[in-house]
Amino acid sequence: MMWGVDEAERALDLPPGYTLVSLRESGDAFAHGLAIAAQAGAGTLISVGRYDLVEFAVVLEPAEPLVSARRALFVGMNATADAIAAHCPPEREVNFVWPDSIFFDGGLLGGVRLGWPKDCVETDVPAWLVLGVMLRAADLVGIEPGAIPGTVSLTGEGFEMVQTDAIVGSFARHLMIGFDQWNEAGFDTVANNYLARLPKNKAGERRGIDRDGDLLVNAPLDMGTPDRTGLLGGLARAAWYDPCLRSPKLA
What we know:
By secondary structure, the protein is an alpha+beta fold. The chain has a single domain (19-201, 230-248), classed as 2-Layer Sandwich (BirA Bifunctional Protein, domain 2), CATH 3.30.930.10. Helices cover 29% and strands 23% of the residues. A hairpin with a 3-residue loop joins strand 4 (94-97) and strand 5 (101-104). 35% of the residues are buried.
């Protein structure tokens, strides 16, 4: 590689079309992705070699204006959930909290971030997007598994360590499938897959995701204007992420 970072061999099984950039454990996959995206090109996957986190980012090159291209977040959320589900113990659930938090078996596991060029306006097609994924792989040293009930880790929930790298490769494949579905069947397929993992507040409510990526919710039997929850505000909060710890929050 030519990015001036450590390229230690990793046991990542990536499908064709991806280029791996490996960082040492002090690296920041999302920040590095933002820094190199303009030169790296689509399919560049940045992975950090940490035992306590599954941390990686991927560069995308959208073909839509920024205002609608941000819906790539939902493809990334679905791909992450499908990758976890492919390797998790049976009868466990992966769920979302709007828009970017990932819960496993009721506890916060991690989330997804989305970045784009700062100078790109809403109506322009961005030169790149970066999806960043972070999942807690192991419990914190000195804290017994289950001691923080709202927080979970992959190994604490029965995953083998070898499966953490397998999740990255599985994500890469599911991401390609997700974008293929969007291109061939339209965004509704992506939205429905995402909404299936987003718990409802009330039984019977109707939900959708509009072209801006906002969540639209109608109460049961309400045919009026739906309640709207913005995507941009949720992305800015990144409610699952602790920037001081540089890891998913502890509940």
